[in-house]
Design goal:
Elements lengths: L16 E5 L8 E2 L2 E2 L8 E5 L4
């Protein structure tokens, strides 16, 4: 997954991150009858949580 596809995505297991619904496909896993490129069909992405 490139930063251009989802600039908020971080590697799974990163400190201060959590599972979130994919914004591109709204958690469906598909866009235009194709696998979503951001979540790779899972409907979920890992994003930073919290704030400073």
């Amino acid at each position: 997954m490139s930063d251009k596809e989802n600039p908020e995505a971080v590697p799974a297991g990163s400190a201060g991150s959590g599972e979130n619904i994919c914004r591109k496909c709204n958690g469906e896993g598909r866009v235009d009858d194709k696998q979503c490129p951001e979540c790779r069909g899972t409907g979920k992405v890992t994003t930073p949580i919290g704030g400073a």
